[in-house]
Every structure is written in C-alpha cells, then in structure tokens.
Amino acid sequence: MSTFSSEYLQEAVDIIKKLDPAPIERMAALLDELRAREGRLFILGVGGGAGHASHAVNDFRKIANIETYSPCDNVSELTARANDEGLDTIYSAWLVGSRLKSTDMVMVFSVGGGDLDRNISSSLVRAVEYAAKVGAVITGIVGRDGGYTAKVATACVVVPVVNPDNITPHTESFQALVWHLLVSHPKVKMMTNKWESQKP
Hints:
Elements: H1 4-18, H2 21-36, E1 41-45, H3 48-62, E2 68-69, H4 75-85, H5 90-97, E3 105-110, H6 122-134, E4 137-143, H7 147-152, E5 155-159, H8 167-184
Parallel strand pairs: 1-2, 1-3, 3-4, 4-5
Helix pairs in contact: 3-8, 4-5, 5-6
C-alpha cells in the first residue's frame, strides 16, 4: 500500500538516479585546488541552508583540512548588519570584511539559488555578485532551476525536481548528501572519521 513515506522515499531514489555526478566531481577538484593554494572556503545559506552551512564548516575544516567559514556562525554580526544596513547586503558586506580574494571559494546552499526579480534570497545574489567581482570561485548546491547561483557558478549541483510539492525538503536533504560526499571524496578527504577508524 502506498503511503506518503513510501512515495517520499521513492522520490529520493528518483533524484539519486537523475543526479548528475559531473558537477560534483568538478567541485571536488576545485576544493582540492583551493586547499593546495591555501585559499579559504566561505559557505552561505539562508533558512535551512544557514543551518547546513554551520555543519558543513565543521566537516570541511576537520575532515578536509580546508580553512572554512560561514557568516551564520556569528549571529551578533549577522543581526547587526541586518538591522543597520538591511538584509540585502548582510553576506556581501561580511565577505568584504573577510577580505574575500580571487584565491578563495564561495559555496551556496539554496533551494532557488537566488532571484532578484522575485526578491528571493537577494542576500545570496549580492554575495555571489561580489564573489564574481573579486574573481573568487563560485560553487553551489541548489534546487529547482538553480537561479542566479547556477547561472554564474564555476560548478553547481542542481538537485532534480521530481515532485513540485517537495522541492524544498528534497533540495535541503540532498545538500547534506552532496557535501558529505565531497568531504568523503578521495580528492578532498584528509582525515578518517572517528567511527570508521574504530575496530569492529
């Protein structure tokens, strides 16, 4: 008997079958190059993507040995910028203060990738615009059509839509899957995880 759970899980299976590994491999290569040139990784997201960013910072620092940051980890600065300067520039101004350089990378976690015309995730669009201006590498894990991020990124994973009613939960689920794939990738991984290092 079909249930919501079985249908949702089947949708996840369908996404995996349709997910293109090529941009993931490209991102792994770019992360390897980033570490080799001692560049920094800045992870940006709003909503669920903001929570993912904090988790991913831990993984890229600890497992991949890449210097990684997220503005979401300093709520005082983030809210001060939102209050004093407005939401549109909270991330771009933070990147300016972080002295973003062409040797660095920005990684975006977003369902739609940002869309100024519809005023959706404009803070991400402004940050990506600034990253492009300074020549930083731009990557992302996004959903739907990928929005602005997918248009300008060097490498971007677009999570396929298999059910228009579940775009957000599937995209955010697969953001976690893809970044865990990346920190486990032989080109990126530098440290064995705790449980994998334990004897049975």
